[in-house]
Amino acid sequence: MNKRITAALSVAALALALAACDAPSTASQSPTGNGSAAAASAVIPQPERFPESCKAPDGGKLRIGLVTPNLQALFFNQINTGAQTIADKAGVDLQIVSGNDDPTQQANAVDNLVAKKVQAVVVAAIDTEGIKPALQSASKANVKVVAVDAIVKDPSVSAQVGTSNAESGAQMGDFLAKQVQGTGKVGVVSALNSTIQLERQKGFEEAIRAKGMTVGTVVDGKNVQETAQTSAENLLTGNPDLKYVYATGEPALIGLVAGVKNQMAQDRINVVGWDLSVPAVDGLKAGYVKGVVQQNTFKFGYDAMTAAIELSCGKTVEKNIPVPTQIVTPDNVGDYMYYLKK
Question: Is the C or the N end of the chain the one with fewer CB within 10 Å?
Fold first, then answer.
């Protein structure tokens, strides 16, 4: 990419008592009050605009494919919801396909959509290098390519929608380091098979090291909740003096929260991570989850589908379409409860 996508992070209400590990916040500190996070509140922000569609070359509706890593994570379901909202309004035939967390299967899904003569394909890549041959073949077949979430640096990509994962990871590192005066060791629950999450890990680690903190044990959750939970519990039991843990994605954070609860470690572990979910919000309300980087997932879907439609209709779109992120804390979580909706 010719220019970096800058993440605009909201850092309001960041005065959290992370250093006071023995006195975590209570649910009453959340604006939403007590109770389970399952009852999501607030209204999902609607698209700022809807694109005008056009006919497909055969005279029918435009056909656009969306290939996601999986259909389990709330994150990707919200991208799908955003994309479907735009497609329905524009009268576009949207086909959503899961890569089932398999880079090869995801690449094959792109090939299959091209064979079905879609006009554009939107891809949230699992492997940003491994997906390139499929995207290049799509481009050669005159299929427009939009990358969403994961940054794919290739001429076949006409538009990139997302955030700078490294920069947002660094912002979370700065957030944590500021609260603990740059002291302490941080464990990491990562997903070593995810390009995006490796970028988030790198940005975070560089930031905390620059502020005087150290990186402890890194475990691999493989972007699967159950695996992440097992890895997180191994991390906690193997490091009884550990106070801080960073999770690089939604499955990692859900697994980490479950591991902390199973180990009854809420009083000693302070968690930071990525992407809201019911367990993450419950952890924010309980106080041991101190901050979550939240991406505007619905806007990912809105903007990616809008770009795909306009490219298919011969219009020019911005090469880089940035989407801002926020840091959600126990103090402001009530403003972001709509992220628990699909």
Answer: C
Residue 76 makes CB contacts below 8 A (sequence gap 6+) with 68, 69, 70, 124
pLDDT digit string (tens) for 94-153?
A: 999 999 999 999 999 999 999 999 999 999 999 999 999 999 999 999 999 999 999 999
Q: Are 271 and 282 in contact (CB under 8 A)?
A: no
β 325-328/289-295 pair status:
antiparallel
Type of residue found at 66:
L
Say what the pLDDT of residue 42 is.
Answer: 66
| Spans of the chain below 50 pLDDT | 1-40
Q: 180-209, pLDDT tens digit by residue?
A: 999 999 999 999 988 889 999 999 999 999
> pTM of the prediction?
0.78
For the chain, give the number of residues.
Answer: 342
- Residue 261: CB partners within 8 Å, gap ≥ 6? none
- Please tell me the distance from the alpha carbon of residue 7 to that of residue 293, in angstroms, as a whole number: 11
The b-or-e profile of 236-266 (16+ CB within 10 A means b, else e) is: beeeeebbbbbbbbbbbbbbbbbbbbebebb
Side by side, the strands of the sheet bearing 325-328 are 9-10, 325-328, 289-295, 270-274, 244-247, 185-190, 214-220
C-alpha pair distances (Å), 26 with each of 172, 256, 264: 22, 19, 16
CA distance 169 to 206: 9
CA–CA gap between residue 116 and residue 128 (Å, rounded): 23
| Rounded CA separation 109/98 (Å) | 8
Q: Give me the residues paired with residue 176 across strands.
A: none
